[in-house]
Amino acid sequence: MMQPPRSCAYWHTRAHSLARLPKAPALNRTSLALPEAGLMVASHRGQTCTELSKLLVGSRFSLVMAVSILQLSDPHLLANPLGWYRGVQPFVALKNGLERALLQIGRPPNLLLLTGDLCQDESWAGYALLRNLLVPLGIPIALLAGNHDHPQLLRACLGRVAHVAPALIPIGGWQLLLLDSHWPGEVDGWISKAQLHWAKKVLNNQYDDLLVAVHHPPEAQREGSLFLDRLVTFAKPKIVLMGHIHQHRRDTHAKTTLLGCPSSFLQFKPTQICPLGLPHQCGARFVELEADGTWQETLLRWPN
């Protein structure tokens, strides 16, 4: 596997980290009960979520079937699971949102993607809460650091059980490129030329359809418009999934669709009309990727 340049502090690709995920128990029923997290995830044809997802995520074996990604964003967790921030209990909100999102989509996704601002107080305990909530689901996990994150603690706590940006993840007949836009000490993001050079190198001779996940949208990045121009020139992604803005948003750049995700925590003032007419509700996004390169996405909302 192509390795990122050694000069980049946190960079490490983990295309085979799924082998370390705990294996979910096989059940005769059509659901998988998870009392630790208080959630339930449906199984499929007698196989557990983990067994199915190992075939689709972290492998270059392309199956002629659709794969799916459930994106949540900006949970802003605290070390205290019952702690309050800006009038919300972030961990309670994330747990509730994850349960509601899984119920709405009706089946386990092939990948659970969280696009940054994972831990407001940047604590080990906050990342441990996230790990203990997500790992029992048995669904492969991909994580981005946002401006409200500590990338080293994030990787130390979750790097063995999740893909952590920057990384390139095969998922069915697609590739998911995770980019790290964390800029230490700054609210805005930055993707350096070195990281873009690494991305260009690992994508060399890759002909699968591509989507990209990054925390900061271009307007919230240093040299964001230049980054986007470079990205669409060498990578030609069909989709860019973003966090940071705490709202639904859909834009296009060249032939690339840019999708902003609502927060599981609280919403900012909308800049576009919510298709569901519920801009103040928490939400997520469900993306389905077909083997023929087509795709569709569904905006999810639920009461705060």
Largest sheet: 6 strands, mixed
How many structural domains can be distinguished in the coordinates? 1
Query: What share of residues is helical?
Result: 10-25%
Outline type? globular
CATH superfamily: Metallo-dependent phosphatases
Cα Rg: 18 Å
CATH class: Alpha Beta
Output the number of helix runs: 6
Instruction: Look at the structure and give the mean pLDDT.
Output: 83
Low-confidence stretches: 1-50
Task: Please give the alpha-carbon distance between the first and last residues.
Answer: 42 Å
Describe the structure.
The chain is α/β, with parallel strands linked by helices and 304 residues long. It has a single domain (59-302), classed as Metallo-dependent phosphatases (Purple Acid Phosphatase, chain A, domain 2, 4-Layer Sandwich), CATH 3.60.21. It has helices at 49-56, 90-105, 124-134, 151-158, 193-202, 224-234; strands at 31-34, 39-42, 67-72, 111-115, 141-144, 163-164, 167-171, 174-178, 209-214, 239-242, 249-253, 256-260, 282-289, 295-302. The strands form three sheets. Strands 6-5-4-3-13-14 form a six-stranded mixed beta sheet, with helices on one face. It has a six-stranded mixed beta sheet with strand order 7-8-9-10-12-11, with no helix packed on it. A two-stranded antiparallel sheet has the order 1-2. Strand 11 (249-253) and strand 12 (256-260) form a beta hairpin. Helix 3 packs parallel to helix 4. It is globular. The chain starts with 30 loop residues before the first strand and ends with a strand. The relative contact order is 0.16. The model is unreliable at 1-50 (pLDDT under 50).
